[in-house]
Amino acid sequence: MTSIRSISVVVPSEPTPSGLLRLPETDQVAHWTHTPLIYIYRAKSNNTTIPFSFEAMKNSLSRALIHFYPLAGRLHWIEGGRLELDCNAMGVQLLEACSEAELDELGDFAPTDAVRDLVPKVDYTTPIEEWPLFLVQVTRFGCGGLCVGVAISHTMVDGRSATHFINSWAKLSRGYDLEDVDMPFLDRTVLRSSEPVRIPRFDHIEYTTKPPVLIGRTDANEERKKETSATLLKLTREQVEVLKKRANQDVIGVTIRPYSRYEAIAGHMWRCACKVRAVDSHNSQSTRARLTVDIRNRLKPSLPERYFGNAISATVTPICLYEDLLSRPLSYSAGKLREAIERMDDEYIRSALDFISSQKDVSGLRSNFHIQGYGPFLGNPNIFLGSWIGLPIYDADFGWGKPIYVGPGLLNMDGKSFIMTSPTADGSLIIALSLQRQYMDSFKKIFYEDISVSLAKL
Predict the structure, then answer these.
(1) Do 367 and 311 belong to one domain?
(2) Is 31 assigned a catalytic role?
(3) What average pLDDT does the chain have?
(4) In the beta sheet, which residues pair with residue 75?
(5) Is 50 helix (H, G, I), strand (E, B) or coil?
(6) Which residue of the set 86, 324, 395, 397 is catalytic?
(7) CATH code at 365?
(8) Which of 276, 278, 329, 405 could form a disulfide with 442 if both were Cys (CB 3.0 to 4.6 A apart)?
(9) Choosing from 34, 154, 164, 204, which is the catalytic residue?
């Protein structure tokens, strides 16, 4: 049981720019909820505690908000279901908590109910103008370890920007000066749609078409109600290489370059999900995968390296059939994922911005993963395949050493997953996955069996 000792509002330690900030289209279609993350830190030896100072963390956070002052503001709704940021320096929320439990009692830190308690809660029934955009809960455990649980507004940042902020805060906590922190690029107008808005040049199926539903159903309401469970899947470097090699065998058509780790693993996950779900369905069932693509270097010219905001764009694969995904080699599903990724060039992305901007109301374009029941359902028979592989999530050293684990604090939607680097930095990966409980055991069995079969053939 976690108990809260204190709650503080932290504001920038110096005056920061004020006024209204119009948010670009990539922010408008991001989830208006907060992304939950946990950073786990273990004491260096038994019978010791991490030298943690709540005041020091508060002071360094206050200094970090000088550079990252938009996070200290508040959102409010404007016409068309859109949001605007008021840079009013109302501050972020910092909670101090303690738990009599030991870190080992949390197992592998999969996003279960016990882990969810380590992340600050946001009351979404209150007006949006009252929500802090960044909340953090520091929980000390009986074993001397710590968890830094974060809830950060997805309207404000994507994974790369969130990591930039948290790592900068950690650097200040280690005693660095503000001048030592990489300045964020805060001008979001570089991602605005064209003026005047042009007619989109493409059919943006990621926004204009709904995900397939199960054969015989007209909607996903029944699937949405089903209980899910969350797990962490571990892949060694050898297993990753096996999947990459398998994806690049029996390639259908011509590929410019070999399939990546992400394409191979995500393609394997998609096939496994289809295989276990097909038990209660039919091989002619339609399915689609959804993913997000970092567009920073896909635009011409590229965005500034430290662009602070949402510089990701949603994309979806073509609709496929279970029978095609399961009867063809792994290169087929990997190829469908690549097709979706390579669609995201400068012309397509700018067309997407124009499409979003042309919508009278953007509410229907959002999907809020972090609140069950909000937005379109992306689960059975579909899947969301996110990637944190390129994010420096283990650089968040507050002076206690690097975290032993970083991952999502909540996964409560069927079919949602993230592929992440592991703390060992040896090429191994961790996959956080949420799936309907009835399929989880079968998924894990097939996921590893298929890899073992491929390994045995080498």
Answers:
(1) yes
(2) no
(3) 93
(4) 85
(5) coil
(6) 397
(7) 3.30.559.10
(8) 276
(9) 154
